[in-house]
Amino acid sequence: MNEPRRTNPRRTALSARTRWAVPVVAAVAVGLAFAAPPLFASADDAGLPSISPEELAAQVAAAEPSALSGTVVYTARLGLPELPLGAVSGADPINLLGGSSTLRVWSDGEQRSRVALLGPTSEFSVVQDGPEAWTYSSRDDAVVHYALSAADAVRFDELEAKAEAGELPVQGDLPTPQEAGRQAVGLAEESSTVTLDAQTEVAGRAAYQLVVTPRSDTTLVARIVVAVDAETSTPLRVQVWGTSDSRTPALELGFTDVSFATPADSVLAFSAPAGASTRDVVVPLPDPPAEAATPSTELPEGVTVSGTGWDTVVQASGLDVAALVAGDPAAAGLPGVEKSFGSKGAEELYSEFAPEEGSGSPLGDLDTTALYDTLTTPVPEGRLLSSALLSVLVTDDGRVLVGAVPGATLQAMAAR
């Protein structure tokens, strides 16, 4: 195995056209929730100017990524049962299923960032530096380092240089930020409406507040509220309400404090704690697609999609549910679908994580069967997970149905 790539001190700045191409993609995704007829916010007593959803989406698309640091609080009130005693402890991503979690975030707005999930007695951190990343779990005192091989590192630098020079091939013309905003709103207003309320304040900063309301009468989602910083066009808070509780959001993620100053280099640089175990994983750089290749929009065999908008339900059949519950990622393979990795490197990466036969779950000591039994309840069709925003039905004949709809809707579909 080639040696993982170590930190490259060289930093390159992408062209202005390329730099906002990434925010455009993010804006389109966020904009799916920002859909509405052209409704305008009136300037409130704090003096924020009037703006339309299209204009706000365009501002988010055009904004340069901001350097920042701050504290984020994530709260989930999904109505799920309490996890089994001892199933998880400390700073573990599984704790995001319920209760409140605190994260510290830092970013230079370009290639370097750090996120730390804080627990009462432990911490789980993810650090990114360009094409490299590290995770650290203080509970296990273990570091995993993800990096490119030496050959892929050279190719990455070549692609980065071409991007800076504006020489990367692009399928068609990139839309302007204004066009991206209009497209996002046009797509989203097929299933949602938005009112643009007067300003709010998040982490001490003035922000526009968009209230998204699904036009569906059957979805579990009642509304989504997104607060966007008036100065930097950075989303500062997202709240999602379910139809079962109109007083408190089912999910809430937002800054409690934020600074848009560039973090110190010592914060963004990763240094493994003394005595921690370290494992290197080589991450493949995807092979460039053939010029004549056309992206396929066909679903894999065994996967169907029904409904539209907020009522969309995805169904997969022929799954080995028992193996999935046991934590075997290979069990996600669908009948008639061979694993296609796209490159030899991707196949090697899969082998790093796929458990060997009889080696147990890659999730370690977590009792996934007990977790599954706790989060689901028996129903005539199999087992059902019901939450404030999402339902998942696992049938006895190996089907899984998922949608932001009531569990009864999935049960009716499964019985057809």
From TrEMBL:
UniProt cross-references to Gene3D superfamilies, sorted A to Z: Lipoprotein localisation LolA/LolB/LppX (2.50.20.10)
Protein name per UniProt: MucB/RseB N-terminal domain-containing protein
Species annotation: Cellulomonas fengjieae
